[in-house]
Queue: 3 jobs
Job 1
Amino acid sequence: MQEPTDRPEMRMAELARRSDLSVPTIKYYLREGLLQPGRRTSVNQAVYDRTHLERLRLIRAMTSVAGLPLAKVRAVVGAVDGQASEIEAMGVTQDALVGEAETDDAAASAILDRAITARGWRCASSSPAYRAAVNAVAMLSEEGLTPLLDRLDAYVEAAEDVGRTDLDAIGDAVSMEERIRGVVLGSVLRTPLLEALVLLAQQHFAQDLTRSEES
């Protein structure tokens, strides 16, 4: 269970304990401008509050869990601290998680566009997520897996349910930091869970196929 974050102020040692980060790491983030300075109580002492803890938990999610380099962490933090809307900040976070994917496969783009347009999705074709989806469609085509592509509408519908569930799950977060952290952790940790559940579903339905072939 996550500790409550409503204590008014804390010193560096407590901030380190509650964020699961070392004091030198926190000081490094302070020097790099990823974490705002605390409130000075003396020349060598400062106290920190809930906003510092939320920021450190976001940074830890991006570095320790998602494995993002500092440059991408800085981009996400910059979006959160800047004038970006929450949707724009989530877009920056998605881009950081997906990474760069280059594609110029017009046929694959057309297949994907038909499927997402049919669901009424509003997507940026310039986003890394879109390009990654186009690459996946292109690879399926190259491998001749047309039975999967013929069911792309069903995959899009399933993805819509997952995406809606992800955002519903972070809807109660009280700050942008917490919601962006939820996007990071949800995307990274949900992926292996979803893949494993799909494999289990395949096991389940494969038994029906086996019985059908034996009868």
Job 2
Amino acid sequence: MGVCAVAALGLTGCSGGGGTANAGGDATPSATTAGGPADKATASPGASAEKPAATASSGAGGGVKSPAVVPAVPKPPVSPVPASPAVAGDGTDDGCDHKMPISPDEIAVYRYTPEGGSLSLIVRHGNWGCGTPDSDGAPFETVGKETYIPMDQAADITVTNPIVESTENQPIGVQEFLDWLEAHPDSGLVFTYHLGDDGAIDRLDEVFTP
């Protein structure tokens, strides 16, 4: 009985050891379970401390934009260039046609020649240009080269100043006219003329100019 009691006591002690082991085993999960929240609690501050850093890093990275995605700044509209006075006009139209055609019946007479057995006037064609405010009138602007026009020996001729002292046309003989041309070569006086059926000048009238 005593041995049994001792054995029983030892068994109880073994059971107690088992209980102790179990208790120790139970304590280990308990500690693990308790340690879980502790770990979480410990990790939470760390994670909480890391999150702002990550947020700041993300925010700093998001704050720098690539040049490729920077929106282009619209350019201000270009103001139209005002026209220059030459293009816009200065409002001082002189009323003169600067592109007058060559006059069909007016010539500037310079000299004469009897070459070839017939009388011919040496002349230049042209047109009336545009006068200036300080001039006496519009000039007769010649074009091209000198040409020869035959003239009838019996042509009707009228002249004014400076050939005669008159502002109105006065008749003059052909020879008198030729004498004046010989004494005043290259005068360039302007005359209206008319051609006869033979192509020679049969009428010549000086155009009075101031």
Job 3
Amino acid sequence: MTPADPGPEGTRPPPTRRRPGGRTARIRQQVLDAVVAELGEHGYDGLTTDAVAARAGVHRTTVYRRWGDVGGLLADVLDAASDDDWQPPDTGSLESDLAALNQEIYAALTTQPPVMAALIAASFRSEKAAQAQQRLWEDRYARCEIIVSRAVRHGELPPHTDARQLLIAATAPLYHQLVLLRTTPDPQLPGHAARTAALAAAAGFFAEPPSARDA
């Protein structure tokens, strides 16, 4: 899932945070765009509030007053990613849904400059960014669980399939290969990871334990 999602059947995603409009919204967007650009070009160690302010064309005190420090800037970039109407793919089958989702992740992880990988790395250096990243992933997983609930309804998966575990199994190989191991991008990876997870899920490998079903 990209720093870019609906929840399980019968649930809704968390309400979108209200954001100011007008000039305030324009300044915020300028600053967040500058954060992303600076992070992609210079990484976490080269990211400074002064550089962001200069790139955004705003006074440095504006950045300090609203965001405080680099951690606050990164947290707002990540929180802003949840303020969207992104929906997970609905292609008609579990495997193709997972493959389409993985393709989005693959594209985000291989785009240059590597902003998504830089955001992930930054979350290990800033507590504010780490908390915001956790909120973002919770949002994304919640939205994407509808892929699994649809597959259960369509008879592709057994009842009581653990959506979170299936989604992790389907998407984790991309992060492992492209972020941790930094292997050469392989266009076949998104589809292969999706197929492997879909086959394992259909065989019942991601069934919820009985205790979870009764909760």
